[in-house]
Write a structure and sequence with these properties.
The complex is a heterodimer of chains A (320) and B (317). Chain A has 320 residues and is α/β, with parallel strands linked by helices. Helix content of chain A is 33%, strand content 26%. In chain A, the strands form three sheets. In chain A, strands 6-7-8-3-9-10 form a six-stranded mixed sheet, with helices on both faces. In chain A, strands 2-1-4-5 form a four-stranded antiparallel sheet. Chain A has a four-stranded antiparallel sheet with strand order 12-13-11-14, with helices on one face. The model of chain A is unreliable at 224-229 and 255-261 (pLDDT under 50). Chain B has one domain (2-312). The chains are: A alpha/beta (320), B mainly alpha (317).
């Protein structure tokens, strides 16, 4: 048994969905770790939305199971769904009611959520001034914020967003992204987000699962090094690989001088070195190699952008 | 239980927050007032201005004459004897006939119940289909409440709306007819004859409620049908259109179908239970028990269909 703190918040096990004899989702299995922004990526028709709808119980699974916070969405729906706040596609609200009444409606469906909590989430998304107006009069950005408010109302452990940026202008997308960042960093919420906007996913996610034709292609961390965002894998082509490696490791052991010093984690493959470096360190390494009498033929970033990885894995199928 | 109550509060909130609900309520009040005013007969028009006593005396005499005719069937004779007894009792105890008082107006207003049915069908048609059209179904079903409970709350809210309309109809009819006929006879009893032919006084309000209650059967069936169509086809217009068509065409359709032996299983051949009070079944072999069974069967089929389909449906679009 794993402790609740380290167990994945969402676990998919052999999840399948067939509609009319056609397999839409084929034995999908992966875990979503707690406290991460988890992206769900795939070409149109790959089954992203279907998978998300099975996660929240809007669609039934043909096989397999999904556990949220340890409870099966299939057999113990009411307990499992308590952990989930979700926006499936656009946050569609009752337009004829005020934002407040919309929230009251959802608050009543969950025990222990009172007016104080409603006020709290309204403040969190910054809708205090308009909350008693009818949703009909809201802008799309405001509706999106109300959507986030309803998803957070019951203090869920995981937020599931299906194509949340659909129909939003760049400012709205940015606003949403900022909100998500606050939520994950400050409240420690896990987020599952599906999108077809690769650049957005790259900015938002810690990890992405890529699916195609209803099958899992890969689960990848978006950045190899979580914090110092600028550190990338750098490939250096030299004339004498072994000597270059020895030189770099030697300077590291001697303490070096100033900025670029330290263990670069040098890997050697023929005459190609692979190191984890930021911009300044790359220049420093280059200088040392040249000063050490080693010819440097080329120096390039080995880390591929998410888009390159994605296209590599899914072929050249259009994304959007 | 408190959870179901909360769901019910949600569903009623969604009904009453919409302006169109209040337009329907207002329309019902206006129509009841108008219809009552049209049906109202001024006292001087009754029995050529001689007052109700003279009119009752006349009809008692006429009934007695009819009774002497040997060709009159037994059932009619029983009816005539009861009429005579009630007439004589009302003369002796100064109880005017129903039709000359506010209660007659209130009773006639029960013919407006199909209007309440119509308005409830409009609400029922939107009850489930609306959530799908608005897209709100996606946010509604991802809460810790089972689909069965949500559907039950919706059905209960619909029936409560029907009850609210009936209460509004009754209260409006009471006030308007009270103003038209005067409240003087508000406390009058309802006269009925026992099996032995004796006249008894009973509560007028209870009698009126009974009249309304029997008409409730059709309302519940039509509304349940609309609710079922709304749930199964997710189309409010289909639910409203089809149920209202069936309701208004129901009598004609059942009249045509009753020529066949299976016609008696048609829903609208059974919705009017008042026919069994007069002892005139619409077709051979139909009894009150039969009709109640058929109604129950339809009721179950409609509800099981709604429930099963709502519970299993994949919310895809």
């Amino acid at each position: 048994m794993t402790t609740p703190e380290t167990a994945p918040i969402v676990e998919l096990r052999e999840v399948s969905k067939t509609i009319g004899g056609k397999t839409i989702i084929d034995r999908l299995s992966f875990d979503v770790p707690r406290g991460e922004v988890f992206g769900f990526l795939g070409p149109n028709g790959a089954g992203k939305t279907t998978t998300i709808r099975m996660m929240v119980g809007l669609m039934a699974m043909s096989g397999g199971d999904i556990r949220i916070g340890g409870s099966s969405i299939r057999r113990d729906f009411e307990r499992a769904i308590r952990h989930v706040g979700a926006i499936v596609e656009n946050p569609e609200m009752y337009k004829f009611m005020s934002g407040y009444r919309n929230l009251l409606h959802y608050a009543r469906m969950m025990p222990g959520i009172g007016e104080a909590r409603i006020r709290e989430v309204v403040e969190l998304v910054g809708l205090e001034n308009r909350i008693h107006d009818r949703v009909k009069t809201y802008s799309l950005g405001m509706r999106q914020r109300l959507g986030i408010a309803q998803a957070l109302l019951h203090r869920p452990a995981v937020l599931i967003l299906d194509e949340p940026t659909n129909g939003l202008d760049p400012a709205g997308i940015r606003e949403l992204r900022d909100h998500l960042r606050v939520l994950t960093r400050e409240i420690g919420l896990s987020v599952i987000v599906s999108s077809h906007l690769l650049a957005e996913m790259e900015l938002m996610c810690d990890r992405v699962a890529i699916i195609q034709h209803g099958r899992l292609v890969a689960v990848r961390p978006v950045k190899e090094f979580a914090d110092a965002a600028d550190v990338r894998q750098v490939r250096i082509e030299v004339d004498r690989g072994a000597a270059a490696k020895a030189l770099l490791e030697g300077t590291a052991a001697n303490g070096g001088n100033g900025s670029g010093s330290g263990d670069f984690g040098v890997e050697l493959d023929g005459n190609e070195l692979t190191l984890a470096l930021d911009r300044e360190a790359a220049a420093e390494v280059n200088r040392r190699l040249v000063e050490g009498g080693i010819k440097v033929y080329g120096l390039q970033l080995a880390g591929k952008s998410l888009e390159e990885q994605f296209l590599e894995m899914t072929g050249d199928e259009p994304i959007a | 239980m408190s959870r179901l109550l909360n769901l019910l509060r949600n569903e009623t909130m969604k009904i009453y927050v919409r302006p169109r609900t209040w337009i329907l309520v207002g329309l019902l009040v206006v129509l009841v007032c108008t219809a009552s005013a049209f049906m109202h007969k001024a006292p001087e028009e009754q029995a050529g201005g001689l007052g109700w006593q003279a009119a009752v005396r006349q009809s008692v005499e006429a009934a007695k004459q009819d009774l002497e005719d040997p060709g009159v069937p037994d059932a009619r004779k029983r009816q005539l004897r009861s009429d005579i007894a009630v007439g004589e009792y009302s003369l002796a105890h100064h109880v005017p006939p129903l039709q000359t008082t506010m209660w007659g107006g209130v009773q006639s207003a029960s013919s407006l119940i199909p209007l309440a049915t119509l308005f409830t069908v409009i609400i029922a048609g939107d009850m489930v289909a609306g959530e799908f059209t608005w897209g709100t179904i996606k946010l509604l079903l991802i809460r810790p409440a089972s689909r069965s409970k949500i559907l039950l709350a919706k059905y209960m809210a619909t029936l409560l709306f029907a009850v609210a309309l009936l209460v509004i109809l009754l209260i409006t009819a009471l006030i308007v007819n009270g103003l038209l006929y005067g409240f003087a006879q508000a406390g009058m009893p309802y006269l009925k004859t026992t099996a032995e032919g004796a006249v008894r006084e009973s509560s007028m309000l209870l009698y009126i409620l009974q009249t309304y209650g029997l008409k409730l059967v059709e309302l519940v069936m039509v509304v349940t049908l609309a609710f079922m169509i709304s749930t199964v086809f997710r189309s409010a217009s289909l639910a409203i259109g089809l149920s209202i068509f069936i309701m208004f065409a129901g009598q004609i359709i059942s009249f045509m179908l009753l020529r066949y032996s299976w016609g008696k299983y048609f829903l609208f051949a059974n919705t009017d239970l008042t026919v069994y009070l007069d002892g005139q079944p619409p077709a051979e072999g139909m009894t009150a028990g039969f009709s109640v069974m058929v109604l129950l069967l339809y009721f179950l089929v409609f509800n099981v269909l709604s429930w099963e389909i709502f519970r299993r449906r994949d919310v895809a679009a």
